[in-house]
Each structure stands twice: as C-alpha cells, then as structure tokens.
C-alpha cells in the first residue's frame, strides 16, 4: 500500500488530498495507494521526512514553508529543483530521497500559449515567483519582476535573471502573473499590487497563482476587460499531475483532478 502525502504548515486548506485521491481512484489504484495531508512544523520537517520511507510512503508533495528545506535534505536533486532553489515533490526510493520541482512545468502547462518572445510581468519574489521566473526565462520570455519589498526582487533577478521594475506599465505586458499571496485573505489586489482594474486588455494573459474565491478579484477584473485568465487551481492541477506521474509512472487523469480540485 504505497502512501503519498502533502507536507505543509498549515496544510488543512490543501486541495491536494481530494485531487490526488480522485486521480488514484480513476487510475484503479485507489485500493492500493492513498494520499493524505500531514501538518509538520519547520523544526520537525527533516525528521518527519526521513521517517516516511519506513512508514510506506513512496513520495510527497511539499508546500509552504518547506520547499527550501526539502531541497536541502534530499540525496539527489533534479536539475530544475536545483536551479530554482526549491522542491515541491519528493520521491522515496532505494533508501534515497529525490527532490524535484513540478511547479515550474505545471505553470507552463497551464498557460494557453507558449510565452516565448513575450513580455511578462511577474508580481512577487517568493518561492512561487522563483519557479515562474525561471521557466519563463527558459522559454524565452522577457521577464520584469515587481515585489513589495524591492530588495527581494533584486536578489531574485540577480540570481535567476530578469529585470526588476518599480512601476510596471500594465498595458504593455502580454503576460501578467500574480505570484504574491495577495487575495488569499481577501485583500484587494488593486490596493496591494501596481495594477489598475480597468487597464487590462484583450490579447493579454493574466494568471493568478492564488486560489480560493472563484474567480479571484484580479481575474474577474482582467476577464471583464477581455484578457485571457488562468487561475491557481489549474496550476495546482498541472503541477500535481506531474508529481503523480513521477510516483505512479501512469498518465494523470487531468479532468478528474480538475473536477476534484474545484469541488474541494
Ligand atoms: P512566499 O514565498 O511567502 O512569498 C509571498 C509573496 O507575496 C512575497 O513576494 C510577498 O512580498 C508577497 N506579498 C504578501 N503579502 C503581500 C501584500 N499584502 N502586498 C504585496 N505583496 C505581498 O509565498 P509563495 O510560496 O511564493 O506563494 C505565494 C502564493 O502563491 C500563495 O498564495 C500560494 O498559495 C500561491 N501558490 C499557488 C500555487 C498553485 O499551485 N496554484 C503554487 C505555489 C504557490 P514581500 O517579499 O514584500 O513580503
């Protein structure tokens, strides 16, 4: 009975158990595999992870605030996880812990079109921003980064690339990605972020990594002005699908995962 889990602090809000258990059932693995949420504080994280293989776990997702710690304790890192500096997926096999990052590829798959050659604005400079900036640059986008705390966006651009921007020119971007936590606790994105609700345009793609309310205030405004929108649930589904495929070596049932994540 291989076990899977998401490790976070807190983790009670996570839609991953519902999404992955629905996927496992759809794949006919529901009787064998299971996926649970485990809340673990930062000071207990390493010990908890090291015990997991012995408890029958085949892998785990890792969420806030453990993505850096997951990378640090792994025996083996994928190149993506190493370059981004964060891991969201662990694999326990042969007595070793392997760390991967499916956030970047999941984000890319959620986009309606390739970002190659596009001018992109990334809002935020935390863990989610690192994966987004990294993959956008890899795909050949021009990336500008705005963050409330400018020092952090400067560090991010020095490390991964892209340019920091103080006053983004909202209509100029073909892609705008909110990787900040704004909206999670009902904050007004147009008060906290350098965006105006009436300056989106058709031809732009606007992505909000935060999920909760559907649609978020940011995506409701962007969609209302004719922009194409992508929400955080679609990114959650895509990164989860890649993790599931890593663990089970089976193609992930995306529609089932989407339906379960939206209903959770
Ligand atoms: P993080 O490392 O803690 O970074 C938080 C970011 O939000 C920082 O850039 C921070 O700016 C900014 N921020 C927080 N409150 C703000 C405010 N009131 N105004 C302006 N900026 C504010 O978190 P993370 O891991 O990057 O995650 C960020 C969000 O993305 C979370 O809501 C998370 O749930 C979501 N996420 C979604 C997915 C998905 O699959 N959909 C995956 C990963 C993350 P400062 O540097 O100034 O503090």
Describe the model.
The chain is α/β, with parallel strands linked by helices. Helix content is 39%, strand content 20%. It contains eleven helices and twelve strands. It has helices at residues 16-26, 45-52, 67-73, 79-84, 103-110, 127-138, 150-160, 189-192, 217-224, 232-248, 254-263, and strands spanning 3-8, 34-39, 57-62, 76-77, 89-93, 96-100, 119-123, 142-146, 163-164, 175-178, 205-208, 228-231. It has a six-stranded mixed sheet with strand order 2-1-3-5-6-4, with helices on both faces. It has a six-stranded parallel sheet with strand order 9-8-7-10-11-12, with helices on both faces. The mean pLDDT is 97. Residues 64, 103, 124-129, 147-149, 152, 179-182, 184, 187, 192, 209-211, 232, 235-236, 239 line the site of NADP nicotinamide-adenine-dinucleotide phosphate (NAP). NADP nicotinamide-adenine-dinucleotide phosphate (NAP) binds next to helix 6 and helix 10.
Class from helix and strand fractions:
alpha/beta
Global geometry = globular
Largest beta sheet: what is the strand line-up?
2-1-3-5-6-4
Query: How large is the share of residues in beta strands?
Result: 15-25%
Binned, the helix content reads: 25-40%
How many strands, what sense, and barrel or not for the largest sheet?
6 strands, mixed
State the low-pLDDT regions, or none: none
* Secondary structure: number of strands: 12
**Averaged pLDDT, please?**
97
Bound molecules: NADP nicotinamide-adenine-dinucleotide phosphate
What is the alpha-carbon Rg in Å?
Answer: 18 Å
DSSP helical segment count: 11
| Distance separating the two termini | 24 Å
Question: Which sequence of SSEs, written as H and E, runs from N to C?
Answer: EHEHEHEHEEHEHEHEEHEHEHH
